[in-house]
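Late entry, evening session. Most of the bench is empty. Finally got around to the prediction I had been postponing all week. Sequence below, unchanged from the version circulated by S.P.
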Amino acid sequence: MATYNVTAQTRRVQHTGDGTAGNFAFAFQINATSQLKVYVDSTEKTESTHYVVTLSSSTGAGTVAFTSGNHPTSSQTVTLLSDIPFARTSVYTSGGQLTSASLEDDFDTNMFIHQQTNEEIDRSLRLAEHDVISGANMTLPVKDTRKGTVLGFNATTGNPEAGPTITAVQSLSA
């Protein structure tokens, strides 16, 4: 792993396709090309098959270029997303060598994971900071309960619940 100047940033960027290979840039640091997820619209793409990643040795940021036959069109959205695994790679042993470089690598990776998790939280359903949380349960209804329904919020608690069926809502709107 390389150590760079870690700054506060979103670990996700979106571009509009243009019918070419790219290059589609991302400014957040990754330490290996496998730490990047690439989507065209809602389809996750595969490195080497659909695209290649080039990383800057000085910043850890980089670009994505799509392979022949996989160029995103102007109607498609390209999403580049940090995908650092939640795993520890360093092991510190009693009496073992502890270097500043190994600590910096671990601190940087932890910061990247925090930024990545924060980006995921920013895309989630959640209560406002100032909202009353007593009795709040923002857990979605189980899949079998919510299938074919619209999402609603309980009139008393404000908690999410499965609402009427999609068919019933469509009939009502018609």
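Two things to note before I forget:
The longest helix spans residues 100-122.
Strands lie at 12-16, 24-26, 36-40, 43-44, 51-55, 62-66, 77-82, 149-153, 160-165.
Will write this up properly tomorrow.
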